[in-house]
Design brief:
Low-confidence stretches: none
Protein name: Phosphotransferase
Pfam family, one: APH
Keywords: Transferase
GO molecular function: transferase activity
Largest sheet: 5 strands, antiparallel
Strand order of the largest sheet: 1-2-3-5-4
Order of helices and strands: HEEEHEEHHEHHHEEEEHHHH
Distance between the termini: 55 Å
Structural class: alpha+beta
Helix content: 40-55%
Number of strands: 10
Shape: globular
CATH superfamily of the largest domain: Aminoglycoside phosphotransferase (APH), C-terminal lobe
Strand content: 5-15%
CATH class of the largest domain: Alpha Beta
Length: 331
């Protein structure tokens, strides 16, 4: 039986039975009733045990790569993720220990915390830089630069089909008119990959403080269901917009030091960050609007008014970036 397309009406009991049996083999005993939450895209279960709370997750088809990805990341960069206690990648199921409080629980993260998060994320990306085939094997969607023009067309087609997306025909025509610019910028980012200057890596695609555990003073990233194989710098788009509050209430944080600290991990500790890398970073941040919108194509069913508004904001965000990209020139 294949992985369901949507999970809102799927029973959690097979997941619970599998997890309890697997945990018992590790000497961990369920100790209390499970608490189940069904959404279209996943089932999440809070299960008390004699060793503390554990979390069970079963993902819908479009998000099922998370199980295999977590196994890979747990082996390559265990200091940056929660290693699963159990995983069945073929079914998109896994179990993790409780990660403790999330970064947002203590209020708005400061600049130092963001720098720790982003430099740690760069280290994780570099740790899997030689694992592109393994990343692909998990089922991660391919959002590498070469694929972005095709994703752009799919995103605009979905926007036209969704009745709740607050964009008119004139808006969509104007966005389609940006197709040539999308292709040119995608080709520029693809040159980073094909030239060997940078590797493809994993883009979390939803990196913000609600998705980061603070475990014993260390930051561990979770909720990898939206992840994709992409240009590594794409991850900074949503992260820096969240850090600075551009899309909500300004936080007073300057994104410059955050970006610089992240890029320094790629340039090397004693190297000057080259202009081409700075340009690629800003360009990838702008193109991240496409990746975010493309990720939402995995959602089963229609968006509804709330999600449709978010989806439209990715498209208008890219439109605004394209109108004034402020990219440094190279050579």
């Amino acid at each position: 039986m294949g992985i369901p397309e949507r999970m809102n009406d799927v029973s959690a009991q097979p997941l619970i039975d599998w997890a309890i049996a697997g945990l018992a083999e590790q000497g961990i005993t369920a100790d209390g009733a499970p608490e189940v939450r069904n959404r279209d895209w996943s089932i999440v279960v809070r299960q008390p045990t004699d060793r503390g709370v554990v979390w069970l997750k079963a993902s819908a088809r479009g998000f099922a790569a998370e199980a295999g990805l977590l196994v890979l990341l747990g082996a390559a960069a265990p200091e940056h993720v929660l290693q699963p206690l159990l995983a069945d990648p073929d079914r998109g199921w896994f179990v993790t220990p409780d990660g403790g409080p999330v970064l947002s629980d203590s209020g708005a993260a400061g600049s130092g915390q963001w720098i720790s998060l982003l430099t740690g994320y760069a280290d994780l990306q570099r740790a899997v830089a030689d694992e592109v085939d393994a990343l692909r094997a998990t089922g991660l969607p391919d959002m590498s630069p070469a694929t972005l023009p095709a994703w752009w067309e799919k995103v605009l087609d979905r926007a036209a089909e969704e009745p709740d997306v607050p964009l008119g025909l004139a808006d969509l025509d104007a966005l389609r008119g940006l197709g040539g610019q999308v292709a040119a910028w995608a080709a520029e980012l693809d040159e980073d990959i094909t030239s060997g200057r940078l590797p493809l890596s994993v883009d979390h695609n939803d990196l913000h403080t609600d998705n980061v555990f603070v475990t014993g003073g260390e930051l561990r990233i979770f909720d990898w269901g939206d992840a994709a194989l992409a240009h590594p710098f794409t991850c900074l788009g949503l992260a820096l917009r969240t850090a600075t509050g551009i899309e909500d209430v300004p936080t007073g944080i300057d994104d410059g030091p955050l970006r610089a600290a992240y890029l320094q991990r790629w340039a090397g500790p004693d190297a000057e960050v080259p202009t081409w890398m700075q340009r690629s970073c800003l360009l990838a941040e702008g193109m991240s609007y496409l990746s975010l919108a493309a990720s939402w194509l995995r959602l089963p069913g229609g968006f509804g008014p709330e999600f449709a508004g978010y989806f439209a904001s990715f498209l208008t965000g890219f439109r605004d970036f394209a109108a004034d990209p402020q990219l440094p020139t190279t050579g």
